[in-house]
UniProtKB/TrEMBL annotation:
Pfam families according to UniProt: Aldedh
EC number: 1.2.1.41
Top-level EC class as recorded in UniProt: oxidoreductase
Sequence similarity: Belongs to the gamma-glutamyl phosphate reductase family.
Aldehyde dehydrogenase domain boundaries: 10-281
Matching NCBIfam families: PRK00197.1, proA
Organism: Leptospira weilii str. UI 13098
Record Gene3D superfamilies: Aldehyde Dehydrogenase, Chain A, domain 1 (3.40.605.10), Aldehyde Dehydrogenase, Chain A, domain 2 (3.40.309.10)
Protein name per Swiss-Prot or TrEMBL: Gamma-glutamyl phosphate reductase
Highest taxon, organism lineage: Bacteria
Role this protein plays: Catalyzes the NADPH-dependent reduction of L-glutamate 5-phosphate into L-glutamate 5-semialdehyde and phosphate. The product spontaneously undergoes cyclization to form 1-pyrroline-5-carboxylate.
InterPro entries: Ald_DH/histidinol_DH, Ald_DH_C, Ald_DH_N, Aldehyde_DH_dom, G-glutamylP_reductase_CS, Glu-5-SA_DH, GPR_dom
Length: 416
């Protein structure tokens, strides 16, 4: 089957399925999702076996350790996927929520309610849990979805969609509500991006080249999950007891994710800079240092200017030394991708200036950048973390997968 025929057939079937989802009650949707959570736990051996095939292929392709970590599923991560689905079940169904209601002077009654977007396409790389997160969020919000994962996670994604289809079949629901693109060649991506009459929104999650390709070629509205060049600024008045735990967590806990810190900014008045750099090195972090930081830790490597705009997704960290908060803010404005910025300080005025001067999806004070996450924000999971401003910014949860319709009831009124 030619690319365009394949794409149109899948898109049409998904659009058709999206119409049937509108009639499902919250209890029907929750029943499906609870069944999915149970299947994830019962069939974890199949999931892990499929994932092992992907990991084997990843090793043969010499994927980086960070990418291998993003790809990895184990018993704990499968349990986390099931837990995330149950969390989504516990959240209020946004469909039908009344956002505005009033009676006009002429007697017309207006009620505005949340309704599903329709068909959501997500293009993503590496992380198999995205398949479950996006599928569950889309289904709960009454949307059908098209899932196009990366070739490196093909077997993992395929088994996860298979389980979703099993529970949909059991409940008599069209399996095209969760559509899996089993073609990983990029030549199949472009035709999807041209299906504006069948797909309502596309969310790219992945590397810079993927985001650029989708943004430049899509005829469908795009919500970008762009790279996370996250900046963490240590002010001169930072509490030393907080600094090392926050910095280590921000960089080391999971370096291969978008909310990990990539740039560490040190005020030269902070007295424990050397100890902080040593602590990072002890954790295996490769330090790319400016001259001031390099003088404190000569075992590091000289940083290049372009490093400050790089999303490493690995145990690498660029370090910049500044002499003022204003210099730190100017640096962040120059290097940030608009994802996450954080400050560690005991100076309330410095914190206020920091949070009112910058323009990113999330601004943190005295905590790890790793908290910029849908689950941590109480959304259950996320379709992605939008770094744009329309129509959502930050973690994209259930409510962000809806739009509104206004229902107007009259009694013969005409406009004069």
């Amino acid at each position: 089957m030619k690319e365009i025929e394949y794409v149109k057939e899948l898109s049409y079937r998904t659009k058709k399925a999206s119409r049937t989802l509108k009639s499902l009650s919250s209890s029907q949707k929750n029943k499906v999702l609870l069944g999915l959570a149970d299947l994830l736990e019962k069939r974890k051996s199949e999931i892990l076996s499929a994932n092992e095939s992907d990991l084997k292929n990843g090793k043969e392709k010499n994927l980086s350790s960070a990418l291998m970590d993003r790809l990895l599923l184990n018993e704990k991560r499968v349990a986390s996927m099931a837990s995330a689905v149950r969390e989504i079940v516990s959240l209020p169904d946004p469909v039908g929520e009344v956002t505005r209601g009033l009676t006009l002077p002429n007697g017309l009654e207006l009620v505005t309610k949340r309704v599903p977007l329709g068909v959501v396409m997500v293009i993503y790389e590496s992380r198999p849990n995205v398949t479950i997160d996006v599928g569950a969020l889309s289904f709960k919000s009454g949307n059908a979805c098209i899932l196009r994962g990366g070739s490196e996670a093909f077997h993992s994604n395929a088994i996860l969609v298979k389980l979703f289809h099993e529970i949909l079949n059991k409940e008599g629901i069209d399996t095209s509500a969760i559509t899996f693109v089993d073609k990983t060649d990029r030549s199949f991506m472009l035709p999807f991006l041209q299906q504006a009459s069948l797909i309502d929104i596309v969310v790219p999650r992945g590397g810079e080249s993927l985001i650029k390709f989708v943004s430049e070629h899509s005829m469908i509205p795009v919500v970008k999950h762009d790279k996370g060049v996250c900046n963490l600024y240590i002010d001169q008045d930072a509490d030393p007891a907080k600094v090392i735990p926050i910095v280590i967590n921000s960089k080391v806990q999971r370096p291969g994710v978008c909310n990990a810190t990539e740039n560490l900014i040190l005020h030269n008045g902070y007295p424990f800079r050397k100890e902080l750099l040593q602590a990072l090195a002890k954790e295996g972090v490769e330090l790319l240092l400016d001259p001031s930081a390099l003088s404190l830790y000569p075992k590091g490597k000289p940083v290049k200017e372009e490093d400050y705009q790089e999303e490493f997704l690995d145990l690498r960290l660029s370090v910049k030394t500044v002499s003022s908060l204003e210099e730190a803010l100017a640096f962040i404005e120059r290097t940030s991708s608009g994802h996450t910025e954080a400050i560690v300080t005991e100076d309330l005025n410095a914190a206020k200036i920091f949070t009112t001067s910058l323009d990113s999806a999330a601004l943190f004070v005295n905590c790890s950048t790793r908290f910029h996450d849908g689950a941590e924000f109480g959304l259950g999971a996320e379709v992605g973390i939008s770094t744009g401003k329309l129509h959502v910014r930050g973690p994209m949860g259930l409510a962000h997968l809806t739009t509104t319709t206004t229902y107007v009831t009259g009694n013969g009124q005409i406009r004069s």
